[in-house]
Write a structure and sequence with these properties.
This protein is α+β, with helices and mostly antiparallel strands. The protein has a four-stranded mixed beta sheet with strand order 4-1-6-5, sandwiched between helices. Strands 3-2-7 form a three-stranded antiparallel beta sheet, with no helix packed on it. It is built from nine helices and seven strands. It has two domains: 2-124, Alpha-Beta Complex (Nucleoside Triphosphate Pyrophosphohydrolase); 136-291, Orthogonal Bundle (Globin-like).
């Protein structure tokens, strides 16, 4: 039997509901409920979200699928989605005694094991992004107006890249499996390619936020170059794969209107400058790794 849950994150606070009936009456959980006959899973998740919390939302992605044996309901399949809040006000609704946003460091053990698992996976996936934001100091009286503005713009830049990461990865994988310069990757599993691109984009966002230093680039890419060399991969293919990541970051930013609408001239130059340094260092240390 399918069960849907939704994670809504607002400034590192997760929307929770306190159950008003069995099973687990009095315990907290994510907005959770059963899909109804003829209803899509996504529609069910958004309906339960609104009924239990008063919040309207938009599904951004499927986060986790987990089987769960309940003594109360029997065999269940939990599907947990991530959603953005689009409207409404928090209020307790069906099956809930309370509803509120809870800071991530104050979240109690949740009623259902799949809720705990999905929320742990979500927090883990956001750690790099949150580390970036934390690494950019908050404006204070000692900072110049120019520096305060630069920090705010950099945060917006990182946020734009993070929001469009899935599309960047999707387009990169399609290019990798069709581009003649990366022919040796055509038979690589999609999940492996996804993890490669995801890792590098995460490094780039950390780098833009000054939370990833040159020494870490040196260690990672020297090791990568050495490993790819031992695997018999051509250096031209490895460097082309890296170059295509940079290409698709720019392509998505342009197609989404990110650079024209959301980023001013400072951000465009800052993105170009920081990315050029990052990829120059990555290429240099990959080559070093091949020479070892």
């Amino acid at each position: 039997m399918p069960v849907v849950s939704t994670i809504v994150d607002e400034d590192r606070q997760i929307l929770l509901v306190k159950r008003d009936r069995a099973p687990h009456k009095g315990l907290w959980c994510l907005p959770t409920g059963f899909a109804e006959a003829g209803e899509s899973i996504q529609d069910a998740a958004l309906r339960e979200l609104h009924e239990e919390t008063g919040i309207k939302g938009k599904i951004t992605r499927l986060l986790d699928v987990d089987s769960y044996k309940s003594r109360f309901y029997g065999d269940l399949l939990f599907l947990t989605f991530v959603a953005e809040k689009t409207g409404g006000r928090v209020r307790a609704g069906d099956d809930s005694a309370q509803a509120r946003f809870c800071p991530i460091d104050e979240i109690p053990p949740l009623a259902f094991r799949p809720n705990n698992r999905a929320l742990s996976a979500y927090i883990k996936s956001k750690k790099d992004y949150w580390a970036i934001l934390d690494s950019i100091s908050h404006p204070d009286d000692a900072m110049t107006t120019k520096r305060k503005g630069a920090n705010a713009l950099t945060r917006r830049l990182i946020n734009d890249i993070s929001k469009n990461k899935e599309k960047m990865i999707e387009q990169w994988i399609a290019d990798m499996t069709a581009n003649p310069s990366t022919a040796e990757y055509r038979h690589t599993e999609t999940r492996t390619l996804y993890n490669i691109c995801d890792r590098i984009i995460s490094q780039i966002t950390l780098w833009l936020g000054h939370a990833y230093d040159i020494e870490r680039i040196k260690i990672f890419y020297t090791k990568l170059g050495s490993e790819r060399n031992k695997a018999g991969a051509k250096i031209s293919g490895v460097l082309s794969a890296l170059s295509l990541i940079r290409k698709h970051i720019w392509d998505v930013a342009l197609s989404q209107g990110t650079l024209q609408k959301n980023l001013d001239l400072y951000m465009t130059f800052e993105l170009q400058r920081r990315m050029t340094i990052f990829f120059d260092l990555a290429i240099f240390y990959i080559t070093r790794g091949y020479e070892k």
